[in-house]
Protein: Mor transcription activator domain-containing protein
Amino acid sequence: MSYLKAETVLPQEVLELIQEYIDGGYLYIPRKSNNRKSWGEKTNSKLWIKKRNSEIYTRYINGLKITELANQYFLSEKSIQRIVLQEKRNNE
Structure:
């Protein structure tokens, strides 16, 4: 996210009104609810995690132990167990 100068994007009367509430501070203006993107949509994080989880499950089915997978993927054993269970449910 980059910052914009308020005086370059807002009309003077709007800027003065905002300054009455927060003079010289930072203000976050949220997106409209119908313009919001879901988590990972912008960076493809969801896709990357889905691929990783599928790979973990495949390796588990092929005989790798939970401990080995946790070490390889730098995740806790509990996280690997959760991923395996979730992938198993998705593949049934």
Q: What stands out?
A: The chain has a mean pLDDT of 90. The chain has one domain: 6-91.
